[in-house]
Amino acid sequence: MNEPHSDKTKRNSWFYQWFLNNKATVILINVMLLLIVVWLFANMSWIFQPVGTFLGMALPPILLAGVLYYLIEPVVELAERHFRFPRILTITIIFIAVIALIVWGILTLIPIIQNQTQQIIKNWPLYWQNIEDTFNQILSSPHLAAIRKQISEQISDSSKVLTKQINSSVNDWFNNITSAVGVITNILVILATAPFLLFFMLKDGPKFRPYILKFVPVKFRESTNQLLTEVNLSLSNYIRGQLTVAFWVGVMFSIGYSIIGQKYALTLGVLAGFLNLIPYLGSFLAMIPALIIAAFTNSFMVVKVLIVFAIEQTIEQRVVAPLVVGSKMEMHPATTLVLLLAAGKMFGLLGVLLGIPVYAVLKILIGHLFQWFQQVSGLYEEAPLTTKDLTSPTTTPPTDSEETDSK
């Protein structure tokens, strides 16, 4: 049956060719519609304010419970599969062991760290005065006479700005004592809620994925299952790797500083462990307070601290990190640094800690979305070779033997 003339005319029109039958134009229109929807949501944020308040209260304990879940789940899985222990019994034993460990830390480690921290705060003005005296001695050098005035002004201005910011922060803290109480209350709520969430996560962990897949259309269940597997593997590798390496870094620094007689060894080691959660930059940041304190102990102590740092880095890179599977996210160092700077600028310390795992999850989601787009768009399909292409002469010239045979 012949196609109507009006339909042929419509399909040959420029509007149909450029807008209705053009994949690039359709993609751009969809992107524009998506941006319009985002703009509408941004200008109607008051609708989502209750959702934001709810997430602000619910997410912190969920995140804390999730981190602990990835640490404890392998132990529960090992006891259940290989030793045939009941899952509830294993979880109960682990909870009792963790509570005993926390009580031991509160009774032994916390008082030491608290005492050393108070000493650091008490002696910090002396350290700062020594730093100023050292700068003054350096500035008194005749080689710096030309720029001595400018450096002195910069140091003075920086000192004034720092003092002003500290005073402003102290005043704001005293003026907002109610919000400080609210923050402490939120922390207590998080610490009280997370263990209950963790218990049910460990108890019902194997049921999470089948429950989620039950709501996914049958056509997309296989791809969704693969997506969930990759996300779970990426998060578990990163969390377990980072926390395990950070723990051993803290232990190694604490032991090393204690051996060389560095002041505040335990506090500096614990600080190094926490800062090691920041990739690439954490180890460098952990060295700054240790070197400052060592510099005002004696000059040889600085050398000792550098030796401890070199030994720790060697053990971490050659022994600890290779043994901890997933400590590396296969990310380029430049990507990691840019991501840390951007996330830290936008979300502060929370962005620095969560930027890389969130990036890893988004990378997996975008990768699967791009694969789906490749399949449905048809833009990445290679045109099949035609008979003309197969019979056309190639660019490679015939060999001498082929010419002789043809003759």
From TrEMBL:
Q: Where in the cell is it found?
A: Cell membrane
- Its main localization is membrane
Q: Does the keyword Transport apply?
A: yes
For membrane topology, the record states: Multi-pass membrane protein
Compositional bias of type Low complexity: which residue ranges?
A: 387-399
Q: Which InterPro entries match?
A: AI-2E-like (IPR002549)
Query: TM spans, by residue?
Result: 20-42, 54-76, 88-113, 177-202, 243-260, 280-309, 337-362
Keyword Magnesium among record annotations: no
Q: Which Pfam families match?
A: AI-2E_transport (PF01594)
Map out region (Disordered) in residue numbers: 387-407
Task: Provide this UniProt record's keywords sorted from A to Z.
Answer: Cell membrane, Membrane, Transmembrane, Transmembrane helix, Transport
* UniProt similarity note: Belongs to the autoinducer-2 exporter (AI-2E) (TC 2.A.86) family.
What's the protein called, per UniProt?
A: AI-2E family transporter
